[in-house]
Every structure is written in structure tokens, then in C-alpha cells.
Amino acid sequence: MAITKSAKKAHRASLKKHVFNVRRKKVLSGATKDARKEMTTESLSKAYQAIDKAAKRGIIKKNTADRKKSRLAKAVAKATAK
């Protein structure tokens, strides 16, 4: 456990950030699942938004975000081409 005053404060801050990060990650995975399930351009744009926000906040790295967006777009294009 944290001993110094500043370490205690940093620990409290990290716990608060953790809540936001978990929430952002759930939104990201939910939007991605919806996009894969529905295979529409609207769901794809919502997934893009969630992926970009997660990358901006540091939940996932930029290259990971780009890879996820690329794979989603490819899957949606394949599904709508049929």
C-alpha cells in the first residue's frame, strides 16, 4: 500500500482512471461486436468512433486501432458485396 501522501493521491487517481479505462474498453468491444454482427456502414462508423477514442485515450495503441479498423472495414465490405 502507498505510504507517502503523494503516493496515496496517485493511487486514488489511478483507481478513478481505471474506471474510465474499463468503461471505454467495454464500449470499444461492444461497438466492434455490433459492427461484426450487423455489418452496416452505420455500425462501422460507430465502431470507428469507439476505436479512435480508445486510441486517443491510450487504451489501445495507434497501430492496434488502425489494424482493428482495417479488419472491420474489410469484413463489412465482404459482407455487403454479396
Secondary structure layout:
Elements: H1 5-38, H2 41-57, H3 62-81
Helix pairs in contact: 1-2, 2-3
Kindly state the mean pLDDT as a whole number? 94
Instruction: Count up the helices.
Output: 3
Please estimate the helix content.
over 70%
Taken as a percent bin, the fraction of beta residues is under 5%
Number of distinct beta strands: 0
What ranges have pLDDT less than 50 throughout 5 or more consecutive residues? none
- Alpha-beta content class: mainly alpha
Global outline: elongated
Oligomer: single chain
Order of helices and strands: HHH
Biggest pleated sheet: none
Instruction: Please compute the radius of gyration using only Cα atoms.
Output: 17 Å
- State the end-to-end CA separation: 57 Å
Task: Identify the notable features of this structure and list them briefly.
single chain, 82 residues, mainly alpha
Write structural notes for this entry.
- By secondary structure, the protein is mainly α.
- The chain has a domain at about 25-80.
- It is about 85% helix and about 0% strand.
- It has helices spanning about 5-40, 40-55, 60-80.
- The N and C termini lie far apart (about 55 Å).
- The mean pLDDT is about 95.
